[in-house]
Every structure is written in C-alpha cells, then in structure tokens.
Amino acid sequence: MPAQIIDGRAIAKEIRENIKREVQELKEKYNIVPGLVTILVGENPASVSYVKGKQKTAQDLGFYSVEEWLSENTSEEELLKLIEKYNKDPRIHGILVQLPLPRHIDERKVIYAIDPKKDVDGFHPVNVGKMIRGEPCFLPCTPYGILVILEKIGCQVEGAEVVVVGRSNLVGKPIANLLMQKRKPVGNATVTICHTGTKNLNFHTKRADILIVAIGKPKFITADMVKEGAVVIDVGINRIGTTLEGKAILCGDVDFESVKEKAGAITPVPGGVGPMTITMLMKNTLESAKMWNRLPNEIEK
Ligand code: GUN
C-alpha cells in the first residue's frame, strides 16, 4: 500500500497560526513584540533562499524582524561585533547566523559569540549541553520539527528502532540524542546512527521502524533499503537543477518515488521537514521573548 505522505506544510501552518495568535496577545496584553535578526554572509543561493523564507515568516507572524546581509568578504571581527550589538539589543530575542559561513570565518567562534539566551538555533554549546542533559533549552529547529512531525502523525516512537543516517551537528547528532531520551510524548526509542564509516548500511536501514536521513546526497536511500511500513523522514534538500523560469528543482536524500510504495509514511521534499524548520525557529523566538520578559516559557521552566 502506498505511504501516507506527511504534509509538513499543513502541520507547520497550524503551529504558525497558534504562534501568530500568541504574538497578538503578547502585544495587546504586555506590549511585547518578539524580535529576530537573521545574519547572512555572502550569496550562497540556498542560504539566500532559506533566509528569505525565515524573514517572510517572521514578518507574517507579526515579529519585529531585522535582516543583515553582509558581503562575502566581511571579516570575522566585523561579524563578531555585529553579534555583540544584537546580544545587547533589547528588541532582539533571537539571533540567527545562517550557516555555512565563508571559509575565512571560524564558525565555532561565531556560534560561541551568540548569547545562549538568544540562540534560537540551539547551536551554542550551552544549549547543546542542556539538550543532552534533557533540560529545558532552545532545541535545534530541524530536530525539533521532526519531533513535532512524529508527534502529530501519532507515530509509536517509544520502543521503536530508529535509524539516523548522518551525524551532523545540525541534524543527525541532536535528533538521535533526543529520540533516545525518555522524553514525552516522543522519545524512548532504540537509536542507531549510521555514517560514512558504517560497514553495511542496508542492514541497518532495513531494520528501521523510523528512518531519518540527513546526508545531503540526492535520492540516496532507495526502496530496497527500507522496511515495509517504515516511517521515513527525509531531511535532505538537494538542488538538482533549475526550471526554465529559474526556480530551483529540489529533491531529498530519499528516492521518494520508489520509497513511497514501500514505506508506511514519508515526508516529501519540498513540503516535508523544510517548513517545520522555519516554524520551530519562530516558536523558539516567541518563547525567547517570553523568557526575556519573565513570562512563563518553555526555555527556562
Ligand atoms: N544552515 C542550514 N540549516 C540551518 C539552520 O537551521 N540554521 C542556520 N543558522 N543555518 C543553517
């Protein structure tokens, strides 16, 4: 039987409507407006497109949003100064520096420079450490989005065999960690992480009740690698060409056409995990605004 196609856009829309309502309430009751700054260095087309999406969403939801678009040859020092400026700016509750950065800038220094209380990406080691300890913190947006998807589709995660393909700091490591935690409603799974050193990838992927793929290789996972009825979460966003109108043609890390015939449920690309990532960034920024204003929130419980 063909898989349930998981509509990430619909799930994201529902969450955004709730965020929008809360933003209006915060404004009316307390005159608080959540503030997000996005910082982009250079013109990487994928990054430009992601940042535009984040800016548009922030504006649609009624946030105070600032867009910093710096030239490719901005120095590390200039970028660190700019981050410091927003660390001190009381109108800003979330700072997002789009990755990857140009090679002459040390990504680690930049992440460390962001105030952990404004780190709505959840990349700062303070937040990563809290996440691993299972403490309230900013969760990284893509793994957070995956948790919400699994919850919304009613996926049985407790006791499931989860296989994560990819071990990046952005997705693989955090989602593997979160799903093995005793979190409710989504957690307590048995998690395996596969990577370039894995000897028999098929052996592992075919055992997965939930298969999460984040490797950046177009259509890498094929039907023969997937267990019948598995839930397949495709995190890849690969640009494999452009249309005559100049729009990017995207595909995931999973061969959607073949795998959808075998899986129980699958996220499409586009329209699966992508919209959730942006939405959870907005959620983190909203919670941050509440935290900075000493209102009950999900970051400091
Ligand atoms: N580059 C790719 N994904 C992300 C993300 O979630 N946040 C940031 N800051 N950069 C990214």
Description:
InterPro entries: Aminoacid_DH-like_N_sf (IPR046346), NAD(P)-bd_dom_sf (IPR036291), THF_DH/CycHdrlase (IPR000672), THF_DH/CycHdrlase_cat_dom (IPR020630), THF_DH/CycHdrlase_CS (IPR020867), THF_DH/CycHdrlase_NAD-bd_dom (IPR020631). Residues 6-121 form the Tetrahydrofolate dehydrogenase/cyclohydrolase catalytic domain. One of its GO terms (cellular component) is cytosol. Residues 140-291 form the Tetrahydrofolate dehydrogenase/cyclohydrolase NAD(P)-binding domain. Its EC number is 1.5.1.5, 3.5.4.9. The protein is α/β, with parallel strands linked by helices. It has 2 domains: 28-133, 3-Layer(aba) Sandwich (Rossmann fold); 141-276, NAD(P)-binding Rossmann-like Domain (Rossmann fold), CATH 3.40.50.720. It is 39% helix and 16% strand. It has a 6-stranded parallel beta sheet with strand order 1-11-8-7-5-6. A 3-stranded parallel beta sheet has the order 3-2-4, with helices on both faces. Helix 6 (141-152) packs across helix 10 (273-292). It is globular and about 50 Å long. Bound molecules: guanine. Residues 96-99, 121, 141-142, 170, 277 line the site of guanine (GUN).
Largest sheet, in brief, is: 6 strands, parallel
Q: Let me know the number of strands.
A: 11
Shape: globular
Taken together, the total number of domains comes to: 2
Listing every helix as H and every strand as E from the N terminus to the C terminus, the arrangement reads EHEHEHEHHHEHEHEEEEHEH
Name of the CATH first level of the largest domain = Alpha Beta
According to CATH, the fold-level topology of the largest domain is Rossmann fold
Query: For the record, what is the CATH homologous superfamily label of the largest domain?
Result: NAD(P)-binding Rossmann-like Domain
Q: Can you tell me the residue ranges where pLDDT is under 50 for at least 5 consecutive residues?
A: none
Strand proportion, as a percent range, falls in: 15-25%
The level of helicity is: 25-40%
Summed over residues and divided by their number, the pLDDT gives a mean of: 97
**SSE class:** alpha/beta
What ligands can be seen in this structure? guanine
End-to-end distance = 44 Å
InterPro entries: Aminoacid_DH-like_N_sf, NAD(P)-bd_dom_sf, THF_DH/CycHdrlase, THF_DH/CycHdrlase_cat_dom, THF_DH/CycHdrlase_CS, THF_DH/CycHdrlase_NAD-bd_dom
Subunit structure: Homodimer.
Domain Tetrahydrofolate dehydrogenase/cyclohydrolase catalytic: 6-121
EC number: 1.5.1.5, 3.5.4.9
